[in-house]
Write a structure and sequence with these properties.
The chain is mainly beta and 100 residues long. The chain has one domain (18-97): Beta-grasp domain (Ubiquitin-like (UB roll)). 7% of the residues lie in helices and 40% in strands. The chain is built from 1 helix and 5 strands. The chain has one helix at 40-46; strands at residues 18-25, 28-35, 64-74, 82-84, 88-97. Strands 2-1-5-3-4 form a 5-stranded mixed β-sheet, with helices on one face. 21% of the residues are buried. The structure holds FE2/S2 (inorganic) cluster.
Length: 100
């Protein structure tokens, strides 16, 4: 019998910045952990998925992704569910579609 006291200790707040991120690219669905401290672009790159980017400053639009679900904090324009991933951050679990 495993008692609760035997469970490994976890530092309080250590995982508070982690959320679940689902990404669909080329019709394939991927899922992993993402950090609220990184942009959506950085998180998708960290998952080693092929996301387009250029300026990384919210100007060119090449990093545009569609948000299927999820709370975001973004500095860019959100139009028809699309955001600029280089200037958008997750606030909770997210589901993202790359439009190519
Ligand atoms: S990489 Fe240019 S707007 Fe995001």
């Amino acid at each position: 019998m495993i008692m609760e006291a035997d469970a490994p200790l976890r530092e309080t707040g250590a995982d508070d910045d982690l959320v679940r991120l689902k990404v669909t690219v080329n019709g394939r669905r991927h899922e992993g952990e993402a950090s609220k401290k990184l942009t959506i672009l950085e998180n998708i790159e960290k998952m080693q998925l092929p996301i387009r980017s250029s300026c990384r400053r919210g100007r060119c639009g090449s990093c545009r992704v569609r948000v299927l679900s999820g709370a975001l904090r973004d500095n860019g324009v959100r139009l028809n569910g699309y955001v600029l991933s280089c200037s958008s951050y997750l606030e909770g679990d997210g589901d993202i579609l790359l439009p190519y």
